[in-house]
Amino acid sequence: MLRIHRLLLVASLLLLPCRASAHDIPNDVTVQIFAKPQGQRLHLLVRVPLKSMRDFNFPERGPGYLDLARASTVLPDAATVWIADFIELYEDDTHLSKPQIVATRISLPSDHSFTSYEEALAHVTAPPVSNDTNLYWDQTMLDVLFEYPIESEQSHFSIHPALARLGLRVVTVLRFLPAGGGVRAFEFTGDPGIIRLDPRWHQAALRFVNLGFFHILDGADHLLFLLCLVIPFRRLGAPIPVVTAFTIAHSITLIASAYNFAPNFLWFPPLIETLIAISIMYMALENIAGGSSLQRRWMMAFSFGLVHGFGFSFALRESLQFAGSHLLTSLLSFNVGVELGQLLVLIVLIPALQLLFRYAVAERMGTIILSALVAHSAWHWTLDRGHVLAQFRFAWPVLTAALLASALRWVMVLLILGGLLWFLQKTFQRWGERAPGESWKAFAGKFRIGVSSIARSALSGHSQEGERGP
Fold this sequence. Notes:
Layout: H1 2-15, E1 28-38, E2 41-49, E3 60-61, E4 65-66, H2 68-71, H3 75-82, E5 87-91, E6 94-95, E7 100-107, H4 117-124, E8 141-149, E9 157-161, E10 169-176, E11 184-189, E12 195-196, H5 201-218, H6 220-230, H7 240-258, H8 268-289, H9 294-316, H10 327-360, H11 363-390, H12 401-433, H13 438-468
Helix pairs in contact: 5-10, 6-8, 6-10, 7-9, 7-10, 8-9, 8-11
């Protein structure tokens, strides 16, 4: 009976409600960082919620209030373990040594001093909050001023803020103040890797080539659209006009969107996603119907490429903050990465289709089966994305001078697109009328004629010299 009573007592204690411990992982954490090189020092101002530092038991008083006087001795250790040890700074690709903690301060969540670097610096170095202030430890912020030794404030700096362990979802707002003036703002979720705070053009280009390459490989809708484009044309040279038209079109709308020429409405992104699904379904159904010519196919690729370019811009929008002052270079590099990814897909896809149609299934039947599978997926995408689009109410915009100016810009863009389409049509038409190898044969014939005439001239000149004698 004594053993039974002990088990009941333990069970009743387990069922009692308990207060959340200080070691619970917070769901959402926002980190604010200022980085400013000045003379031979780089100042790093960081604000994090105190509850995200889970391995420290901060001293309390009364009914859970933070003992500010005693906690001041713990704050530097917490800042070192949870912040400094997970932030890496580089000066011209040289890793900087561990920083010195200049100041720490407990702040209220309602404090707005981190709106600017000057206000944040003055706040962190000001006298601490009075110990009589009643603050719960999990409702306060920790502000820290770090100082890194550097060679020159004119150097190029990089940072790796690996602060994702502070919570389940960590959003970091980073503002860099270069020595030349201005503010460069970044906002990212989780661990972004190394961020070039002031990237050179080749560093930005390399980053965006890599981004474009993996974006096209990760995008199932773009890959299926590319598959539908090349199924009827399986020679490696045949899809060149089609892929070229698609590339030019999505490059135009991608650059236009990056320079704020795209409509800025909430319904625009779901509209583009729905149109992308419709474009895939249309191309798949056209493959099933058959009879599509090369000219018609590249024109459709150009039209739908304009839509896909806006889709690329949505994926690129959050990454343009890492371009620095090289926006156009980054956009072109992203396109280069996309084309490299498409080229890799074509190199793998075209031989695979040739083997499939030669040994597994007849060409016409295989085209119908593959296109039907793609059309089935695109149909479901269209329904799902159309349902999202239907939740937005479309309202005609109010006629203003700004709207008229925007409409005029789009009319100019459409005229340019029409001229570009006409140029491509004439170019591809002349290319299509030229037989394969014709240009090479003409060049080879002219080369042989030229060599023969030179040889005859040389021989005739030599014979005349022989007749005249010395």
